[in-house]
Each structure stands twice: as C-alpha cells, then as structure tokens.
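Researcher: Good morning. I'm working through a list of sequences from a screen, and I'd like to move beyond sequence-only analysis. For each chain I'm collecting a predicted structure so we can compare shapes side by side. This is the next one on the list. No need for commentary yet; just the structure.
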Amino acid sequence: MLSPLTPGNIIGAENLPRENVGTLKIWGWELSVGWRDKIGDLKYNVSFNIYDDQNELIDYKGVDAVSAGTVAQLAGYPLNTLWGYQTAGFWKSRQEYLDYQAANPGYKSWEDAKVAGGDTRYVSQGTADHTIGIGGGTPDDPGDLIYLGDAGAHYNYGVNIGLEWKGFDFSCFLQGVGKRSFFVNNSTLAPLSTSSEMPWTIHKDYWTEDNQDAYFARLFGNSTGNYQYADRWVQNGSYIRLKNISLGYTIPLKKFIESARVYVTGTDLWESTKTFNVFDPEIANRVETATSSSINDRVGRGNYYPFFRTLTVGVNITL
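Model: Good morning. Structure tokens for this chain:
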C-alpha cells in the first residue's frame, strides 16, 4: 500500500513522500438486476444495483497510534477509522458535576473549573478516577476513546427507471448509500468556537434550562470542550438522492428536419438523509467551513462549498 508515513517532530517537513508502507486487504461484492419489457405501446425498463467493499490494513510500517478523530492508518483496522469519546447527554447543573466528582474522586472533564449545566457529559471507560483522555494513544491503551467505525461509504446502490410511450420518454436515476459515518470538524460544529466560525441555523437547538433535550450543548464562546470527537457528534451519512430525472417528447417532422425532441432535465433535485441539512451527505469526512493555513490540517479534510441543483430545458434536433 502506497502512503506517506507520519513525520517525526525533528524531521523539519510536514509531509513525507509516498512509499510502500503496508499490506492492505480489500474485498467486496456486487449485485445487479434488470428487466426490460413492453406493454402495448408502453416500453419500460428497470434496473437495480448494489455493491459494498471493505478493507483491512493487515500490516503497517508506521506507528499504530490512535487519537480523537480520524485515524488514517492503523494495523488490524479499516482505513480512516473514527475514534471518539462516549457521551451520556449533558450535565444538568454544576452541582451534578461536582456530586459526580465527589462520588468518583479523580474524574475530570474538559475545562473542569467551568463545567455547568448543558455541557457534554463524557463517559469514563473503566473506573472514573482520571481525567478524560486518550490514555497511551494506542489500540491496546486508547484511554477513554472508543472505536466508532470507519468513514467509508458502504452499500452503495442505484436505481434506473425508463419509460417510452407514443413519442414521450421518461427516465430517472436514484442513487444512495446505505451506511456511512463521518465527523464534522469540531471547530465548525461548535458555535462561537472562533471568530471565523459563526453560528448556523442548526445551532438554534442548543441546551437551556427550558430545552434540556437539545441537540447542541449550551452556548459557550471560544471553547470546543463540548465538541470533542465523540459518539454524539458522529453524522449519519446514509442517503437516497434523485440524481437525474428527465422528461421529453419527440415531435416527428418530415421537411428539412427529421425530428425534434423537447426535454426538461433535473439534476440533484431531491434527497433524503439524516445528515445536517446545512451539509450535503456526500461531503468529505472532517468537513469544515474555514480554510486552515496548515498543510497537515488540510490533509483528509474537506472544505465545504454550497451544493447546487440544476434544471435544464432544451431541444435536440435531428436533420
């Protein structure tokens, strides 16, 4: 497998050249079915296909290290695994947090002195007698990190439908992904984390005394403590999308022009997904809205651009 190794602290370079650093096992399957027939003047065709592929890094020359977020290469796991903390909702009050610490001496969360009602409640793996963290940062000692799957798209599928009747023609193509998980960069997920990351409309559902079932934590400026990579913030990237739809009519002509087909076509007009409605479900893992000045920060991360829907009207002329 060709990939760059992670440079050490004294190399003096942000990225190393690609080299053969490991053995990657890839396997998968695919199913495709279709039917074409005619009923009177109506001709129709329907097809469906689905496939999935998986991978495992059998051997890796680099260091097997885990951290919160996305781990690109790790022996014994798929590429681009997701690691984060387990959560149990939000603290109801500062006093609840202090009572928990009294019952579990040594337990500390991020910004310990400021934890209050509406802050994310991180679950300690094992005895809650330590500061929440990554432990030794290895697969054997990940601390409080848990494995949250991989960022690959699984169970990719598509449906094609076509109809023809007395000069009219209709076609549509639906595509989707049955299973996918990904992270939103925590500085983008957290409202008011930096001056360049202002709140979005999705951030209206934040914790207050009167809204304790909110999705987002309490508003807290210049802090990402509530938005550490965790199971609560993993996005469901499964979706179904109307990728293309077209309706046309062919007008038979005799003089100068053999026929003219008038049509209207739409691209990406509709989708159904559980991904945040401000993002497209096909966005890259660790998507962000700000552009980082660091090359390493940009590796494997997708800066987000608006998604476009297209409607086209045209005429095809056959001489």
